[in-house]
Amino acid sequence: MSMIREYQAEDALQKAEAFARGQGAAALQIGVLAANTGAVKLYQRQGFQAYEVLLTKSLQQSGR
Hints:
Number of helices: 2
Strand content: under 5%
Helix content: 40-55%
Distance between the termini: 35 Å
Radius of gyration: 16 Å
Structural class: mainly alpha
């Protein structure tokens, strides 16, 4: 992730948090794909912690 995009993402998260606080929210949740490690690290640096882990198994057979 480029530094500019990372800064923009951090800014957007801070604005979302400020808005949620202003609305009286007690928590803020965000979804991210496990493979998106850059986003996961960004969210963790912003104070987000794992809350729920969703595991998926494909039932499609490869080659079909």
